[in-house]
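Justification of computing resources. Each target in the renewal requires a structure prediction run like the one illustrated here; the chain below, 621 residues long, is used simply to show the kind of job we budget for.
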Amino acid sequence: MPLQKLVFPPGVFRDQTRGSGEGRWFDCDKIRFRAGLPQKIGGWQRFSEDTTDGQIRFLFNFISLTENNYLAIGSSQRFYIEEGGDFTNITPLRKTSSLGTNPITTGSAGSGEITVTDTGHGAVFNDFVTLAAATLTDGITTGEINTTHQITEIVSDNAYKVETAGSASSGSTAGGGTSVTAAYEINVGLDTAVEGLGFGAGTFSRGTFGSAATAGTGAVNQLRLWSGDNFGEDLVFNVRNGGVYYWDESDGLSTRAIALSAESGASNAPVIATQVMVENNSRHVLAFGCNVLGATTQDKLLIRWSDQENAVDWTPTAINTSGDLRLNSGSQIIRAYATRQETLVWTEETLFSLRYVGTPFTFGINVVSRNITIISSNSVASLNGVVYWMGLRDFFAYTGRVQELPSTVKDYVFGDINRTQAQKIHAGTIKDYGEIIWFYCSADAEEIDRYVIFNSFENVWYFGTLTRTAWLDSSSRDFPIGANSVDFQIYNHELGLNDGEGAVPSGIVAHIESADFDLGDGEQFQFIRRILPDVSFFGSTDPTPAVSFSLKPRNFSGSGFGTSDTSTITATKTVDVQEYTEQAFVRIRSREMALRVESSGTNIAWKLGAPRIDIKQDGRR
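Resulting structure tokens:
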């Protein structure tokens, strides 16, 4: 019987039907292509045992002058600095209040709940507050009161409830003494986008052109996103459309970040911004979509910058280089992204190039492209000098000019996005494999559950499922890292061979599946007697690694594949293939057939080569 080699071109061609995509790959999960051949991706292991409060949306790596390797972590509720696997909360304080006499009232007897009275507290549900200097109250000890609590209920503008570890003796008793203070962290944000708030909310051109927003408006109610950059060994960061903060590394991890405007010597520093970053060529701090000079109202098209080499002086004078400019297209700045020679700035309809030009203007702005889109503020990544981003219905690349990136999976991806949660879309890279990866929420998901990859080395596309809310490629770290939406932990990727999310590592379920293939355009039935596999298990640590080969038959393009009933020759046949499997007998018959290769075991690495099938023409009965 003749042998037919099953070798398909690299990449997944999902935007075709199974019939029209004959001779190509159609479906996959947790695989990549190298040298034109599909292989299982690497595994992941826990980066640290520490977790965060809230979903992680921001990861940024920087190194101090004394070579401390820091990771900045922004979640929906707090901001952390990681060093040596330990997460330290440096979330700025919003205010500290003196609460007056006996501001604490216990709940019912036996309960640990207390009500705290603070006129005009400004807190929201889930905010963090640290109480101090309270006395023993109704059997609840000072140690149980004087600690950090998360607010469980907002009673009114002047009172809220928290849960202590104590137990009230009588209940409904006022106390605490006369010296109680409450230190409030900045308001928490949302884990999930609320329709009608944030980027893209409302009708286009609502209000007057360039109309400003009041500082803080909507910041509590929108999806919590962060931006940040290192200024030397220090960190400047901000809440999207919220406050701007500064963390001084020399003060140590025990010191919280403070408002940039509260730094010593600060002059007209922005108090609200869409994004902040440091222009590395000129060492100016840039604030995008920030408040105008001398006011607190936000102008979402305004760009301001500090004096050169000075993060706190934002007042333009004849002897410094601070200043501002305003974009003339769009209604808001969505994202700014630094490249080697310029800073790219997106509004919802235009891409600009911001460049340092020196005195007297400091920075100049030019239009790069109009009538382009960007789907989220975090949907931009760069690799090998090319900037990539996801638009509302297309992928784009910038190489000095904007070009649409052809994709064989575009319809599949954009037809399966939860656009209400589009703000969560996050781009990253895996530079060792030339991959640009976008994580997104599928149509029925509230949190990120899928990814799509463009492989710039192979010029191909593929996709899969993974719950990662933020991503950072390896730079001064050994591995790429990703934040998991399920357990609020961070994982090293491309490390090992397994899924390390559970207490015991489990196998990664990975597969690649072809479109249908046939004989003579399906005029004749085909009978396959055996498979001659070609799989490399190089890198596996299991002594007997295996994958499964499945042949899935059907007689018409509109019908389903055969069942798994192995007693008939028209059913799907699955055989296990190990390293030294020479041939596997299947006996299967149909007009059309699809090949699927899959693994789910632990400690397995595999790469598919050129398997062959023993095939002949069969009767039409």
